[in-house]
Every structure is written in structure tokens, then in C-alpha cells.
């Protein structure tokens, strides 16, 4: 915490044993000092540094401690992530580079809580992590984010139905 001046002033300390020649994504998750959702490190073993094909390949992390288990559906496709609870990490999901509308629903329902826009048009051959973060009832606010393989983190915008519709022309 501020005004920390050394590693001895950290909010948490973890000992990790990492295997040689393995690739990991380490996700800081939880709330410092909270007993229900304690601060921890979640680890994705076998992380990919680039996609195996021209698709964009991602895994998802439910990192919002006060959000319920959710389904994530792609409009026009269906549920791609079923029943994700806080702390869950999915396997990799390959998708063609394109614009996607991601509906977040309470698990097992058809009630859309929010729709996010994921513009993956320029990400063919790359990998990333789509993660939920923040709080539904508190600060920071809940959101969906995309962390790319180079460390860039983008907030996925909420779909605004008053925006002009997307169109393609050739």
C-alpha cells in the first residue's frame, strides 16, 4: 500500500513453485482483508503466448467476488461459457477475428444482465484473457476486460442500443 518503499511493505506474500519451460498467467484476485473473497493468486497453467491458428484464442476468468455464477453467450451463437462462478478459469476458446456481442446472464437463465462489445477484428493469431473484475455493489465498478498477450488491458464497452447499428460493406 501507499507509501510502500520496499517489498517488505506488501499487502500479501505468496510462494510459488513454477516448472521450467512452462508458461503461466497469474491473476491477482480477491479483496485485501476480506474473509469471504480473500486476496489470492489464481494461476493458469499451460498459457499460450500466441494462437495455434489465425483465430483469436482466449480464456475467461470470473473475478468479481460479489457477482453470481453467470453464463456468457455470444449473440447469434449461444452460450460459450456456462455457469462460471467467482474464481473459475475456463479453457481456451478459439474465435474468428470479428466483432462480438457478449451477453452476461445469471447462470441457467435467459435474463440478459448486460451486453458487452468485443472488437476482436485485429487479433487473429493472438491470445488473451477476458476477465470480469470489480463489484456489482461497490467500488470499483463491475466490468469486462481483455488482457492481451503483450500486457495491454482493454475495457470492453457496454453495448449501447442507442448507438448506430454496425454495418459492413464490400
Q: Which terms summarize this structure?
A:
38% strand; mainly beta; 0% helix; 11 strands; five-stranded mixed β-sheet; globular
Concise summary:
With 170 residues, this protein is an all-beta fold. The chain is built from no helices and 11 strands.
What does this 3D model show about the protein?
The protein has strands spanning 24-29, 40-45, 56-62, 70-74, 78-84, 93-95, 99-106, 114-119, 127-133, 143-148, 153-156. The radius of gyration is 17 Å and the shape is globular. The N and C termini lie far apart (53 Å). It is mainly beta and 170 residues long. It has a 5-stranded mixed beta sheet with strand order 6-3-9-10-11, with no helix packed on it. It has a 4-stranded antiparallel beta sheet with strand order 5-4-7-8, with no helix packed on it.
Please write out the topology.
Elements: E1 24-29, E2 40-45, E3 56-62, E4 70-74, E5 78-84, E6 93-95, E7 99-106, E8 114-119, E9 127-133, E10 143-148, E11 153-156
Parallel strand pairs: 3-9
Antiparallel strand pairs: 1-2, 3-6, 4-5, 4-7, 7-8, 9-10, 10-11
Biggest sheet, in brief?
5 strands, mixed
User: How do the strands of the widest beta sheet line up side by side?
Assistant: 6-3-9-10-11
What is the helix fraction of residues, given as a range? under 10%
Helix-strand topology string = EEEEEEEEEEE
- Model regions low in confidence, pLDDT < 50 over at least 5 residues: none
Amino acid at each position: 500500500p501507499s507509501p510502500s518503499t520496499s517489498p517488505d511493505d506488501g499487502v500479501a506474500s505468496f510462494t510459488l513453485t513454477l516448472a521450467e519451460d512452462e508458461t503461466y498467467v497469474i491473476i491477482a484476485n480477491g479483496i485485501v482483508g476480506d474473509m469471504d473473497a480473500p486476496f489470492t493468486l489464481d494461476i493458469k497453467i499451460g498459457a499460450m503466448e500466441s494462437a495455434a491458428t489465425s483465430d483469436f484464442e482466449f480464456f475467461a476468468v470470473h473475478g468479481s467476488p460479489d457477482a453470481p455464477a453467470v453464463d456468457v453467450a455470444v449473440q447469434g451463437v449461444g452460450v460459450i461459457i456456462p455457469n462460471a462462478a467467482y474464481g473459475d478459469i475456463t479453457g481456451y476458446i478459439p474465435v474468428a477475428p470479428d466483432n462480438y456481442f457478449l451477453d452476461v446472464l445469471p447462470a441457467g437463465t435467459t435474463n440478459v444482465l448486460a451486453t458487452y462489445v468485443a472488437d476482436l477484428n485485429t487479433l487473429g493469431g493472438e491470445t488473451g484473457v477476458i476477465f470480469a473484475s470489480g463489484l456489482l455493489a461497490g467500488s470499483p465498478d463491475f466490468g469486462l476486460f481483455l488482457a492481451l498477450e503483450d500486457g495491454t488491458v482493454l475495457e470492453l464497452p457496454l453495448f449501447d442500443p442507442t448507438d448506430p447499428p454496425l454495418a459492413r460493406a464490400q
